[in-house]
Structure formats: C-alpha cells, structure tokens
Amino acid sequence: MQQIGIITDSHSGISQEQAGKLGIRVLPMPFYIGEECFYEDVSLSREEFFRKLDSGLTVATSQPIPAEVMKMWDEALQEYEKVLYIPISSGLSGSYATASAMAREEPYVGRVLVVDSGRVSTPLHRMVLDALELIGEGYPAQEVRKALEEARDKMVIYVGVQTLEHLKQGGRISPAVAVLGTLLNIKPVLRFDVGTLDIFRKCRGVAKMKKAMLDAMRQDLETRFRKWYERGEVYLLAASSSLAEDAREWAGEIRDAFPGMDVMCDDLSMGVSCHIGFGGLGIGCSCRPRRPCG
C-alpha cells in the first residue's frame, strides 16, 4: 500500500483527465442550473455550461453530498495509508468545515487529513502540485499539510471580467451600475485572496483591463512576494473562461511581461466562471512552500 494519496475537488480547475496523469483524484462539484443538478467535467462540459449560463438560467454552486465525499475517501484508503483532502477555500464554501467534521470520525480519523487551502481555481491547482512535490521529497502527511497551510496566503489572482451581468446576478454590483458600466465599456478586475473575491479596479476596455492586471502582478512581485521572487520561488499562473486561442494569447502576453518565468495556464473552474461569465482572463502567482526543515 502506498503512503499518501491526494484528493481535491473540481474547483481546482484540474480535469478528470489531468487527475489521471497526476495520480490523484478530483471530486466533481455539483451545480444547479435551474432545477437540474450537474457535475463539473462529468455530466456538464464547459461548452454546455457557458451556453446555459448565457441563456439566463440561474446557476448556483453547491457543496458535495457527504456520502459522495466519503465514497471517494473510502476508495482512496484502499490504496493509500493516508489521504490529503484539499478542497476549495473555507472562506468561499462550507465544504472544508463539513469535511473536517467527517474526518474526525471513524474510520477516517488519523487517516484523512483535510487541508484548509484558502484557495480556488489555479492557485488550488498549484497547491496540489506543491503537495505532490512534498510527498515526493519524503515528507509525512502531517508535515505536508502544515507546509501547505502555512503557504496558503502566499498567493493572489486577478481576474478581468468581460461582462457585468453575472456580477449583477451575484449581488456584487447593482443593476443600475451594471447598465451604466455596460454603456461605458467598463471591464472590472476582481482580486482573489484567501477566502475573498472582490472588485479590485474598474477599467475602460479590454486593453486597460489587461494592463491593470499586469501592473498589479508586477507590483505584488516587487513588494508582497519580493523575497520569494528574488529566490526564484514564485510560480506565475494564468486562467481563463474564454476561448482556447484567447487563453493562449493572454498567457503569451504574461510571458512577454515577465520574461524568463514559466506560466501555468488553466481553465477557470466553473465555480469561479459562474460569477464572471464567458471571456474572463486571470493572472496570479503562488509561492513555493517552505520545507518543514528549511
């Protein structure tokens, strides 16, 4: 039996195909569109999701059913001595609190370790990769969880929004502001930090939206994350709810703005995309976790 397995959820942006290649499990998160329940990347493709989102139907995210979580834990524990479960940020969902309570009961106590990631989408994906690296370096599960949680706030992501409709539906802006913003070609930039998703800046047009995100990222690297940046321990992240060609172009613009740095590019998870709609572009970074003995 192997020592440590990893389970995350589909809010990480990790597809079932990618999960198979990484040797991890991804719990598909449920969505309600109208009255119908779908599961990300299982019973609902991204193309179908955006078609339904743009049709005006109400889209709502939901916590997974505890029985489905336990089923995946049970399967993993047949293969691994211990399992790290890394769900969406506790600040954005009750999934962490529910999982933590379940992990304190038999047969999971001491064997399933729930990580308070503080993250969603590409930063959560990066945390999963960090966990795999720490496991590969031989650290025990408890130390891996500690290292991940200590590094959870060493990240940020900015997301530029093409449409105001979904911010209006989510209550982040009023209907009047949405109408005026559409007339003025306002493209908001959202900022995601640990447990929060707020409007960071309002820009006139896509070009200014992109520039605002690149400038904000540069400022963060030179100030908040300077120590990690100077040591070469910052991972640049890109994300998109747009077409593949737009995502590639955006990742290229990021590489041009930060020469010599690799950029990991993901599809934004549906859990984020339902709040921003089609055409969103994101940039962020995540710092390499400090090793337990480092």
Topology:
Elements: E1 2-9, H1 16-22, E2 25-27, E3 30-33, E4 36-39, H2 46-54, E5 59-61, H3 66-77, E6 80-86, H4 95-103, E7 112-114, H5 122-136, H6 141-150, E8 155-160, H7 165-169, H8 175-183, E9 186-193, E10 196-204, H9 206-222, H10 226-230, E11 234-240, H11 244-257, E12 263-267, H12 270-276, E13 281-287
Parallel strand pairs: 1-2, 1-6, 6-7, 11-12
Antiparallel strand pairs: 3-4, 3-5, 8-9, 8-13, 9-10, 11-13
What's a concise summary of this model?
With 294 residues, this protein is α/β, with parallel strands linked by helices. It has helices at residues 16-22, 46-54, 66-77, 95-103, 122-136, 141-150, 165-169, 175-183, 206-222, 226-230, 244-257, 270-276, and strands at residues 2-9, 25-27, 30-33, 36-39, 59-61, 80-86, 112-114, 155-160, 186-193, 196-204, 234-240, 263-267, 281-287.
How confident overall, as mean pLDDT?
87
**Strand arrangement in the largest pleated sheet:** 10-9-8-13-11-12
* Protein structure class: alpha/beta
Helix segment tally: 12
Order of helical and strand elements: EHEEEHEHEHEHHEHHEEHHEHEHE
Principal-axes geometry comes out as globular
Largest sheet: 6 strands, mixed
Fraction in helix: 40-55%
